[in-house]
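2024-03-11 09:14:02 DEBUG pipeline.ingest accepted 1 chain
2024-03-11 09:14:02 DEBUG pipeline.ingest length=196
2024-03-11 09:14:03 DEBUG pipeline.predict start
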Amino acid sequence: MDRNIWAGVGAGLVVGLAIGYFVGRGHASDSGGAIPVTPAVATVSPALALQRRIFDAQQVTQREPGNVQAWIALGNDYFDARQPQQAIEAYDKALALEPKNPNVLTDQGVMYREISAFDKAIANFQKANAMDPKHTQSLFNLGIVYHHDLKDKAKAIKAWNRVIEIDPTGPQADNSRKAIEELNTALLAQPEAMPK
């Protein structure tokens, strides 16, 4: 009887080892023998992508200082990166090459506003509008500076009304109407603040 027990135990061990081998081997073969790993997705943050664009535009402007589009792109990237002084300088280079560009003048005006150079911002917006009297973005921005920065409500309303006259169905006309309505609502709430 002892002999049968040992034979049974031996047979059980052999069968158990064989099952363990095949079961273990089956799991390893499912994953190719390696621990499954989720691959890392290569993503670039928007800030990093913006810095990369700035670097690339700087390289182009160094190689091709007469490339107005590269200077505009560099200025726009600095604009988006909220680096107003660098944007102003890049726009200066673009305007030296292409002085009659109301869009660049307007973007540079926004950057002048960012550094509180309100007189320069106004000059840029007025110059852009003089070049293109239908350039509503420059007029709308002019109203913003007059209202928010210089507290000249009458000039702000005049600029926004001009936007509405030029392009009554355009998006800047809608923005101008809203700005005038908000300004008038605020003035009605504070009669002492009404322009005279």
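2024-03-11 09:14:41 DEBUG pipeline.report The longest helix spans residues 2-30.
2024-03-11 09:14:41 DEBUG pipeline.predict end
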